[in-house]
Amino acid sequence: MRPVSDIHDEQLIVVGTGIRATGQLTIETIAWIRAADKVLYITADPVAEEVIRSLNPDGAESLMDLYGSDKLRLDTYADIVERTMAYLHQGHRVCMAVYGHPGVLAMSTHEAVRRARAEGFSARMLPAVSAADCLYADLGVDEFGGCISYEATDFLLNMRAIDPACHLILWQIGGVGVLTYETHHYPLQGLERLTQKLMAYYGPNHPVTLYEAPQFAGVEPIIGTGPLCQLPHSAPTPNATMYIPPLGKAQPDVQVQWELGMQTQVTA
Ligand SMILES: C[S@@+](CC[C@H](N)C(=O)[O-])C[C@H]1O[C@@H](n2cnc3c(N)ncnc32)[C@H](O)[C@@H]1O
């Protein structure tokens, strides 16, 4: 088999390890991790770290030292981009490897690709398995009918719209209302305000699920479901994603259905 570096000539390649590195790393991603001079990785998962280091023992370098309590996440993202660019400037072929999908809630990876291209480097991002992909599988969620997804703090602080007839996913629920990075539990003051905001759409008793996909083979997902009003007492972890199932059915657009003669098909 030809090495990936013969097929494509990216100077920056951005890959994801999936949520469970043992099993969700694609063959293409493995080849890129091997082919890179520097593999800059972001994962707190010791197994994923071990896999990356074993694939490229000389080039692997963790970026986790750039995170810190009380440090704004935005500052960390800027530092990640700077370190990546520094290795590109030194002439290295760089692979950024992050957990999950590298383009899902991962500002620094998108920015690194943009910056690299703007400076004339060839750069590309590969898709990977995100936490949402695991959630669809483990909770049996089908996006048919619509799925809205927000970062929880962004949803809380802005006038975002919800259609309660859609599935709703809220990322980073454990850190809602917090802009810094914490290694264990975040302060939970935002959770109560978020609950109030959601209750305006769903009422107090609609079920909500806190979900954690397994990072290790043979481990079951953590799935906790309860009424929305209990959410402030739930202490979600930094790895939790919240899922809210649809409340009721979508309102039919009678006018369009009538125009297209599709009343029966759409509403059946
Ligand atoms: C910065 S985002 C990274 C998302 C990641 N790039 C992806 O593709 O899934 C961190 C958030 O992803 C979600 N997440 C990360 N690991 C997870 C897991 N094991 N199970 C469920 N959600 C997870 C949580 O919402 C967490 O707060």
Automatic annotation (TrEMBL):
GO terms for molecular function: methyltransferase activity. CDD domains: OphMA_like (cd19916). It holds the Pfam family TP_methylase. Residues 12-212 form the Tetrapyrrole methylase domain. It comes from the Bacteria. This is Tetrapyrrole methylase domain-containing protein. The lineage of its organism: Bacteria, Pseudomonadati, Pseudomonadota, Gammaproteobacteria, Cellvibrionales.
